[in-house]
Amino acid sequence: MPPTAPTIAPGARRFVDLHMHSTASDGALAPADVVRAAAAANLAAIALTDHDTVAGVADARLEGERLGVRVIPGVELSATENGQETHLLGLHLANVEELDRHLAEFRHARRTRAEHMVERLNSVGIPITMASIEAQAAGGAIGRPHVARALVLGGWVADHRDAFDRYLGAGRPGYVGKPRLEIAEAIRLIHDAGGLAVLAHPGAECTRDRIEQLARLGLDGVEVRHPSHSPDEVARLERVTEELGLVPSGGSDWHGAAGGPRTIGCMQVAPEWLERQEARVEARRAKEPVA
Ligand code: AMP
Ligand code: ZN
Ligand code: FE
Ligand code: FE
After folding, report:
1. Given Cys at both, which of 38, 126, 215, 264 links 121, Cβ 3.0 to 4.6 Å?
2. Alpha carbon 212 to chain centroid, angstroms
């Protein structure tokens, strides 16, 4: 069950949370349970943004209709930008069936990658099996967090963090990269699905020039509010986003943890940002109708 929310004062402002994960990828809660947690946290809307899949969206929307929480169809893609891994959110997707045919390839690649991770871990003396990882993924898009959970259950690491520090982080002995789209292609795929392409958690090192270049490739928005950004970074990213004529976004990147710094709704994103995104998506669809 989702964590219970604190008692909500009548008339309390309802925020939105436009970045979260479910068991469709590496989150801990089923899509409907994510929406129940959103209702308990008094959120007006959420975007479900699982890695490389939209498989959770239908269930989330059904539960959202029941509970009065708007569910924005979304996805989080891993792309390559000048050789570096960049995460890109697709928000307000309209034609998810077509997009999902492309994503199926990435999910397949994630499975193959997990097999390589098993081989690498085995070669350093950890007898982890593919079956134990698949049990964690339960049919969803396989990610490193599933491998981490299998490592914890096997008793080879103390906890999730230890798993990444010792084995799964970039450059560690169990690390294997994933095939990634070029960023321009990822933006195009999201546009073809009728969505907005939003740069996910750009962080402190992200320069204005970089965002400007991405805007030239069609980027629509920037995830300004994210738990990895300091208040100063939020202010800077918001300014750059506005100056470049892009739309701001924000979310918790919640993976279902009951405690810790990343809790559902923690970014307190104003519903006005969602309205601006909708205006932009409407404007694009008026220009280029979705197939
Ligand atoms: P993947 O897409 O399979 O490479 O997994 C990426 C996911 O792993 C992220 O969404 C996080 O949930 C998690 N992750 C990545 N790096 C770390 C880390 N250093 N510590 C804990 N979790 C991490
Ligand atoms: Zn994740
Ligand atoms: Fe991400
Ligand atoms: Fe994420």
Report:
1. 126
2. 22
Give dist(CA 103, CA 108) in Å, integer.
9
H or E element at residue 271:
helix 271-287
Query: Which of 144, 160, 176, 181 gets mutated to test ligand 1 (max ligand atoms within 8 A of its CB)?
Result: 144
All residues at 6 or more sequence positions from 216 whose CB lies less than 8 Å from its CB, including other chains: none
Contact indicator for 267, 250 with CB cutoff of 8 Å: yes
Q: Whose CA is nearest to atom 17 of ligand 1?
A: 164
- Cα 65 from Cα 60, distance rounded (Å): 9
Question: Which residue is closest in CA terms to ligand 1's atom 16?
Answer: 169
Q: What's the token pair of residue 19?
A: 């970045």
Q: What is the mean pLDDT of residues 266-287?
A: 95
Q: Which residues neighbour 81 within 8 Å (Cβ) at sequence distance 6 or greater? A: 182, 183, 214
CA 86 – ligand 3 centroid, Å = 8
The per-residue pLDDT for range 222-244, each reduced to its tens digit, is: 999 999 999 999 999 999 999 99
d(CA 199, CA 248): 10
Residue spans of beta strands (DSSP E) within the chain: 16-20, 45-48, 70-81, 84-91, 181-182, 196-199, 221-225, 247-250
pTM of the model: 0.93
β-pairing verdict for 84-91 and 181-182: unpaired
Q: Which two tokens stand for residue 245?
A: 């004529």
Torsion angle of C-alpha atoms 271, 272, 273, 277, degrees rounded to 10: 100
State the Cα torsion 208-210-215-216 to the nearest 10°. Answer: 120
Average pLDDT over residues 120-141: 97
Q: Specify the ligand 1 atom closest to the Cα of 160.
A: 21
